[in-house]
C-alpha cells in the first residue's frame, strides 16, 4: 500500500485511529494526516450554507482572530498525530489542513492524493445527534471510492452501524 489518509480531530474516535493503524495496517509508503476545520464551528447553520455563502463566510473570517485560532488548533492536532506516528518509526508522514465540509474535503483529498485507504474514527454519537448533525464517518464510508476502515471509540457500540464498523484494536495488547 502506498498512501493512507487519516482524517483527525480532537475526539476519542480520532485517537482510536492510531490504534487501528498500528495494529491492523501494514505501514504504507506515506501517511497523510488531514484535519478539516469547519469555519462555522459546530453550528448547524454552517451546514446549511451553499457554496457561495460558504465562500463569503470564509472571506469574512480571513485574517481574523477566529481564523488564527482555528489554524492554531489545526496545527496542534496535526502535530500531535504526526508525533504519535513518528514514535512508530514512520518517517513519511505529511499533514494537510483544510477548511470546509469535512465529508467533502476528506473525499476530495483522498482523490487528489491518490490514497488507497481512509482510516476514520467513530465518535459514538447517539442516533439523535446523528439525525441532527449527521455522521461524517458514515457519509464518507457511503460515498468513498476507496476502502474506508473505521476505528471505534468507546461508546460506538450502541451508535454505529455494525455492518461497516470494525472493532477498535486494543493498544498494547498482551
Q: How would you characterize the overall build of this protein?
A:
It is globular, with a radius of gyration of 16 Å. It has helices at about 10-25, 45, 50-60, 65-85, 100-115, 125-135, 135-145, 155-160, and strands at about 5, 30-35, 95-100, 115-120, 150. Helix 1 (about 10-25) links the parallel strand 1 and strand 2 (about 30-35). Helices cover about 45% and strands about 20% of the residues. It is α/β, with parallel strands linked by helices. Helix 5 packs across helix 7.
What are the low-pLDDT stretches, counting only 5+ consecutive residues below 50?
A: 158-174
Distance between the termini: 27 Å
* Secondary-structure element pattern, one letter each: EHEHHHEHEHHEH
Major sheet: arrangement of strands: 3-2-1-4-5
Radius of gyration: 16 Å
What integer is the average pLDDT? Answer: 79
In percent, how helical is the residue content? 40-55%
Characterize the biggest β-sheet: 5 strands, parallel
Structural shape: globular
If helices are DSSP runs of H or I spanning 4 or more residues, what is the number of helices? Answer: 8
Structural class: alpha/beta
Number of strands: 5
Strand content: 15-25%
Quick summary of this structure?
With 174 residues, the protein is of the alpha/beta class. It has eight helices and five strands, in the order βαβαααβαβααβα.
